[in-house]
Amino acid sequence: MRKYLRCFIGVLLALCMCAPEGVMRALADEATATASQDATTTEQADESAEDASAGASSAEASQDASLPSGDGSASTQQTLQQMIDATTDGGIVTISSDMVLDETVTIPAGKSIVLTDDGSPHVITSTAEPMFKVEGTLTIAATSDGNLVFQGTASGARDQGTVATVTTGRLALQGGTLKGDVPSGVREGTVAVFGGTFDMSGGVITGEQKAASGYVSTATVLIFADDAGNGSTFTMSGGSITGNSPASSWPVLVSGSTMNMSGGSIDHNSGGIMGTSSTINLSGGTISDNASSGIRINANADLIMTGGSITGNSTTSYGGGIRIRSAGSAQISGGTIANNHADHSGGGIYANNCDGLAITACSITGNSAGDLGGGIYLNSTVATSRIDNVLITGNTATLMGGGLWCCPTSNATAYVTNGMALFDNAATGNPSAGDDYVNLDQSESGGAVVSISSRMLGGGLNAFYNDGAISCNADGSDFWSIWGIDGSVGRYDASNPG
Description:
The protein is mainly beta. The chain contains 4 helices and 47 strands.
């Protein structure tokens, strides 16, 4: 600790990069044209083939089961289960009345069933948890999202979804609304998948709220490995997960499994996606306006982002857009990270103690941080970070590093290679320093080392200028609360850059 303090005592020199505005705007245009390809084409083709196959199966079915109008008594559950059991594999069950269920409806292994409506709105509620136990394949295909509304009831049970629990089977949501309750059990949510598959191409999942007391492992959509370690898969190509506030703060919780998002939206929840020991593939869709990080990558999880947008998320902690920690890693080669906020550090991206961060062909704009690194905050003791062909502009930090902050306490090596467009960021507080970039090179003491290309994106030469300095107490005490302006190094002045 003493060695660190000695290394840090004195001033933090901050840098600002400047170039003619016309050149910068040209570079910005080039940076926003990413090299990544939209991964949705193959998935949409697969879905079209799948839909065609389901239609053929339905046409071949000997009968479609249509529920008669009823009084919503418990007998409707028996009728529904009977019709599912009697319907030919791949057949359609049409719901034509409101229903109240008091027992779980099971989709048996080896059977595929499609639930749809008769063109009128119906609400299906259940006092049993789960409403559906999916061991085969259940497709919910309402003619509009409001025509089939499934309202689950939480009982505090472990490893259950109020609407659906998927084990060895597959749940496909194409249309309709799944409404959550107030779960309080261990790994309880609206949809719970353990060793199965959940495909969401449409529909809405909404309404789950935080219990006054209970386990923080609740989530709206739980994607977990089963007891044998077989991972689950969640593929989201459409639809919306919105208006949820589970106890964990994360409407989508992925553990030991895989999530593929190519479309749809996760918005206006208490958080976005959390991954632990999992792979999160983001190629499209929107994660926006959530009250915590858009994506949080935890222990041994990997984020692979080739497209999509992470926008307008805000956290009282770290990493408004993306937070990577505890040996997680991220490869970002496309997409947009914009207008996110962190009360502390890393408005766009916060990478702390991660296994690696590689960013290419991405736009990081308009993000803000209350402390350090409005665009990106790097603090890693084990990783090599690379930033290539990236647009970082319009970001702000109150203290230092409006665009990019590289923490001096790490022993990471950061390579800013093959050019990037880093300009028009701002450090706005008093004191503050380093509109665009801040780093304290500690190569001699084994600390952070940053290597920056001499060329910007598009081939232009970099031009760096001193942009202020901040000092802390000589003994290193009150590191985060006592800062002062070092008048020996002035802020950048465009009329006299030095």
